[in-house]
Every structure is written in structure tokens, then in C-alpha cells.
Amino acid sequence: MKRLNGKVAAVFAVSGAIAGAVAESFAQHGAKVYVSAKRLEPAQALAEKINQNGGSAEAHLVDAMNETDIETFIQKIVADNGKLDIVFNGIGARPSESDYGIPATKIPFEQFLKPVQLHLGSQFLTSRIAAKFMMQSQSQGTILMLTASLSRLKMPFMAGLTASCTAIEGLTRSLAAEFGQAGIKVICLNPTAMPETRTIQETSIANAKAMGMSMQQYAETLKANGSLIGKALTLKDTAETAAFLVSDAGAVLNSHIVDVDFGTMSVI
Fold first, then answer.
1. Rounded to an integer, what distance in angstroms lies between the CA atom of residue 232 and that of residue 179?
2. Considering 22, 54, 124, 147, which has the largest number of Cβ atoms within 10 A of its Cβ?
3. Strand partners, 60
4. 119-155, pLDDT tens digit by residue?
5. Top-level class of domain 8-197+233-259
């Protein structure tokens, strides 16, 4: 079912696993997708893959932390199509670049703030610029943000990222109330860990080390906190949920933080 036929989407940070999978799902459901990344090569490779599979994609070089880059990118999309229906920002940091696995008593303050600046800051920039052009073009579209289940977990050694995830959820509700006056929906996708992603694999290694566990012991801990139906989340599950949320059928969800986790037992 092509639930996004005729829609135009902008996706940021497609060099990451989640944004890449979401862009592919949008295209498979019929959207024209403009994919972007801080490095052009991953965006080009993804666009080529989408086009070869019968979708429509165009690659652009965009730093999702650079306001000028974002504005130029969105402006071009609206100029080309007369509208912008969907925005998704999947920006993230490698565990080695953030505070993963470092006790709060030892992490430098500047490093604690890095995920807040990167995740929260980038979501704010892409959302407000997209909303500005949606208002100008009278595109009553959907801005889909990304957080993580850390906002609902009691996880040690993840202070900065946990604070960032929680803040993004508050930002979602605030922007939904503001942009809703122009008919723009703002939703937040909140998936739990997807074992196939490099980020989760590297995070598990860092946390196991911080807890003094072997990887086998840590894996058993994660298994004990599995989902209520015994199923692990995949990138495809997350991407398909994203495609539903930005479709006309998903319009009833607005300002919501949508948990994508099969009912993970350790998540509130």
C-alpha cells in the first residue's frame, strides 16, 4: 500500500541507520524523498538505491546543525514542488563521541552538553525552518522528530543523551501547540534499541565495560528486559511506523510521543 503517494519529504542525516531506513520506507510508500547528510556520498548512495528500486530520491549535502544549509535545502524543495509535506531528522552521535558508558561523576560538563546540543539543537533547527516554509507555502505537513527510549528508561552512564531525549519530547509538545495554528502536525518517534544498528552494538560494549560485565552477561540482562511478546525491534519496524505517522491515516496522532518497542518490559 503506497500511503504517501504525491507527498514530498525531506530527510536529514541519512548516513545514520534510522534516517536511511525511514527515507527508504517513505519512498516505498510513494513519497518523493530529498535525502541529505553531512557527507554527500552516503546520501548519493541511498538516493541511487531508492531510485533503482523504483522510488524517487534526490541527494543533497546538508549539515543538520548549520542553519544556512538547512534553509537552503528546504527552500529548494519548496521551490521545486510548491510544498513540503514531511520532515524527518534522524541525527545522532556515535557512542565514542558522546557520554555513553561514562559515569556522571567523571564526565566533563562540556561533554555532557554535546548530545543536548546535537540532538535537541538539530531537531529545533530543522523543525522551525521547515515550519517556516510550510507556513509560507501553506503546506499543512508533518514534522516527525526522533528521540529514544532512554527518556523512559532508568539507564546508568547515559546522562547527556537521556537528558536530550527527554527534552526533545517536551519540544515536540511545545512546537505542536505553536505550529498547529498553521495546520502543521508535530510528532515524536520513540523507538527502543534495535540490535542490528552499530550505535546499539557500540553502546552495549561501553555499558558492559562500565558495569564490569562481560558482553554475554550484558546481553542476558537485555534479554531479561525484552518485549512483552518476545520480539526485538528492527529498523524496518521503526521505518514502517514512521511512514504511517506521516501519512493521512496517522493524522490523528499530533503532539504525541509514539513508543515503538513491542512493549519492552524495562520501559515505563
1. 34
2. 22
3. 36
4. 999 999 999 999 999 999 999 999 999 999 889 988 8
5. alpha beta
